[in-house]
Amino acid sequence: MEHGSVRDPSSATFCFVDEDHTLANSVRFALNQEYLLYSTVLLIFNIYIPRVSFCGYSIPHPSDAKVNIRVQTTGDPAREVLKDACQNLMMMCQHVRSTLDKAVDDYRRNPTDMDTK
Amino acid sequence: MSEQESSSDEIMSSEEEEQQQKEGFSYWNLKDVERGQLPPHIRKQGARVHCKSDAPTNTETLQYSGSYASMGVDNSLRLDPFRENFRIKIIALDKDKMEFDMIGIDAAVANAFRRILISEVPTMAIEKVFIANNTSVIQDEVLAHRLGLIPIKVDPRLFEYLSANDTPNEKNTIVLKLHARCNQGQPRHTVYSQELKWLPNGSEFAKESEKPDSKLSTYTSFSCSQDSLPEFAGNPISTMEDIIVAKLGPGQIVLKAESDVWMMDLIHAVVVCGIKHDIDIGLLVLVRVLAVMSFLPDTRLQVQVLRCLVILQEIELEAHAVKGMGKTHAKWSPVGTAWYRMFPEVVLLDNIEGEDAEELMKKCPSGVFDIEDAGNGKKRTKVADSRACTLCRECIRGDEWEKRVSLHRVKDHFIFTIESTGALPPEALFTEAVKILEAKCERVITELS
Fold first, then answer.
1. Taxonomically, which superkingdom (chain B) (predicted)?
2. Which of A117, B7, B124, B128 is deepest in the core (most CB within 10 A)?
3. Judged by CB atoms within 8 Å, which residues 13-72 of B form the interface with A?
């Protein structure tokens, strides 16, 4: 659920029901990492610009199973940035999962050689 | 500054260090920081918690991608470098415990995995107990609670949640039966969880129905036997074997009030009891009878005594296990516990030689330090096993030592330990936890679209 102003979509508060610190803190982390890539004309430098100017979360009351996430962006609609952040977090999770599977396979095959990328 | 520079840290190359030490410290000799890079001490603050003797410093993680935007430094975590740097090292893995190193991930995500493991990965646990008979000393509600905490060795992914309106069926309920008794003359009987027997056909207890001629119904409605399902065919459901559920003693004697009883009846009761059970019990009954009599005003025994009953201690019950999550009740938690600690890094800031080396080695209770031969018969401290460090900070007690030894934690290196309770192997639990976090993200995305 989104509580935002109609005039300015770049800042909004989202309310996640049935969630707690587990998701909220991870999403806050992912939001903080959101960036925009500007390639310069000659492609010499890549300039990364943060998309989020502020984000934070709070649990309004410990008895209510909900969290509020505040997102203020540097221009993009907050909703889109939040979606992208969740997408990124999902991709990270997928990578963690495949790395673990590989590590377990490697360990089973050869318990002494432990390093898996 | 000098402290940090002389530490043999990967962030700063040793050549740079040596050169600075040779030249002596001067601001004019400092090299310009390259654009797009942070000076080494700032990088170090971001990468390490510095554990000092009074309190740790630099505990926060620098999350914001624009933290150093004004210096042209990009602090964002991009997927490609993440994929390149992320590593998992398995240290130990067996059927119920796993220890692994997770390197290159933020504490927010590592903590999410830990929290999900403890409270959101589902398992099966006993939720309803139908007690047909319980004459043991353990009360019904305590018994039911103990049963609930017994881990059931079954893959919870094969079951569905039982919601309030559902009837218990073969897809959402596991029925277990327990019938234990301590017979007369037997020693105390300890009931272990392995005596819980799986009933693949569902409940055997008949429901009391209002209509006397209605069809016999039980507390579950299984459409087929669970052991006919392919996933359980050669793989019967069992519980952890060696958990004590209750202890049953030999029977107890109960004197039950009846109508007028005369002396002859009493003697008869005692004799019958003696024959039926054994003489000791007969005598015990006699003693009890006399004791009761002595309190009665009327010695002609027109009193309300008694029939002698020997009640055997017995438990007969049915336990229904359903799927649930640890956040509802800890009995559904699939882990004994799951935890992580940041990798400890021990850095010697100084050459510690001779007696000091011996002293340092003795100071450390977990054997982090060792002594090496520095040549020409000198002994020198080396860090042999920094992983063993528990950060007790014994080695940096006193001003002297804090200048010589430095303790850090690596912020993105987690030593993760998972202890499974037996439903799933620990590596499968971790995979499930990661999947749950993915599902949460997906839910947010679909709700926003």
1. Eukaryota
2. B124
3. 63-66, 69
